[in-house]
Amino acid sequence: MLAFFDYLAAAVMTVVAVWRVPAVRYGDAHRRALWGGYAGFAAALWLSTPVVMRAVGRVPVVDLDALLKHFASTAAILAALTYVATSYGKTSARVVPRHVAVSRWIAHVAYKAGVVGVIVLTVLFFTVVDRKTPSADFVTDHAGQWGAAIYMSVFYFFPLITTAVCGYQWSSAARRAETSSMRIGLGLMAISMWMGLVYTAARIALIWVAVAIPLNPVVEQDVVRATAMWMNVLFLLVAVGASIPATSAVAARWRTWRTLYLLYPLWRDLMEAFPGTSLYPPGSRLRELTRSHGSTDVRLDRWTADIADAFDKLRHFAPAKLLFAAEEAVASHLEHPDPQPAAEAYWIKAALQAVANRRPSQQPSPMQTKPFVDTDGEAAWLVRVRKVYCEIATAQAQRLLEEAEEGLVA
């Protein structure tokens, strides 16, 4: 059962690390540090799994998997400290909150202490730790040995400080978070850090109690397994907490991409009717939705601006009474359940017929007044318009155009 959770925690943390690989390209240090923490913890968790331990065990260095796991954990811990220190509080602020200043000082000192710690761990590992036989579990098999107790105390010093700092900072940040997703995500990460503090304190107490008082092997194994399970749970909480805000961002990006997918036919027809309105001629739907020169948000802003520009040009081809004819047709004949977007869709389709017929209007057509407050609102309206627009046959649009022109003459 414990092995299953070992693999699960390692796999989940690996997925999170791979998901955040693009952060390595970012210019800000705290995103790279966050990725480094995930990658380091993923490596440490994999080094705790039986398969990887057996693979590393082929190297002729007894308990090398334990040393590598502690190296990876130390690197991840330093990365987590860097992330916390660079994420909260403005560097340029004259007055920095005390807890932010303390976190930055700890992170600054931790790099030097980390280098010294790795050197000390290496020296202790090859000198005072009794490694005559390979260990199935490093803590259990070396229980009661003062050399291993010193070695593990040096290692646990770093997570003891890190979990306290991260737990405090993330708890404080969760209380100040403006969105529920950030509040929940930071809250889960804070809980995991306090769990890590309990785990580290329990492990330190266990190794030194075993040195002072010989423990029952069964009790000792039960405590080690319980704390190992505790650690797997806290890493799963870290993964879930870190993924919630990112998942919200992915969901928002998906909604924007889907809006672009739906608007494509309307945008394409308008850009083909008025070449030069867009920055470049429209391509296929697949090509447009896979362009990498701009984010989906930027493309949606540009498409809505392109459509608005095309609407203004359409007014000079649409007969003056075309909008009234479209509204009357929707209200009396078509009885559409969404009349306002339907009327605009008919107006667009008929006006495009006038453009195709090369018949400019002597008097520009009015347009519906729509109180948009942002791009998302305008895009949502255009999606409703597009739904009806794609259902209108060319013959219907031509007939509506002729009715508007006849009404204008009459």
How would you describe what is shown here?
The chain crosses the membrane at residues 6-23, 35-56, 68-88, 109-129, 149-170, 191-213, 233-252. This is DUF6545 domain-containing protein. Residues 253-389 form the DUF6545 domain. Pfam families: DUF6545 (PF20182). InterPro entries: DUF6545 (IPR046675), MAB_1171c-like (IPR050039). With 410 residues, the chain is mostly helical. It has 2 domains: 2-250, Rhopdopsin 7-helix transmembrane proteins (Up-down Bundle), CATH 1.20.1070; 274-409, no CATH class. It has helices at 2-19, 29-46, 50-56, 64-87, 98-127, 138-141, 146-176, 180-212, 217-273, 285-289, 296-314, 322-334, 339-356, 375-389, 394-409. Helix 9 (217-273) runs parallel beside helix 11 (296-314). It is elongated, with a radius of gyration of 32 Å. The termini are far apart. The mean pLDDT is 83.
